[in-house]
Design brief:
Layout: E1 2-6, E2 11-14, H1 17-33, H2 38-45, H3 49-72
Antiparallel strand pairs: 1-2
Helix pairs in contact: 1-3
């Protein structure tokens, strides 16, 4: 992971394929794999499940884009 910029409104990072998949899988497990009630979810993650699912969806789409670009360039996925 490479932090490229930090401001008072955002942190910008670059993730390798392995790092992106790691975060994706962790979010997926928390959102869909475990049986965590809504209150405990918020306590553990500091966000509602709906926000976590939205982040998961965006990250998943970005990973799919990265995967297609790598495969088109003949790079391994």
């Amino acid at each position: 992971m490479n932090v490229t910029d930090v401001t008072d409104d955002a942190i910008r990072v670059e993730l390798s394929p392995d790092e992106a998949v790691l975060i994706n899988n962790a979010l997926n497990e928390m959102c869909n794999g475990g049986h965590i009630d809504a209150r405990d979810f918020r306590t553990r993650l500091g966000a509602d499940r709906s926000l976590a699912r939205a982040v998961l969806a965006d990250l998943h789409d970005a990973i799919e884009g990265m995967k297609q670009q790598r495969l088109a360039q003949g790079k391994p996925w």
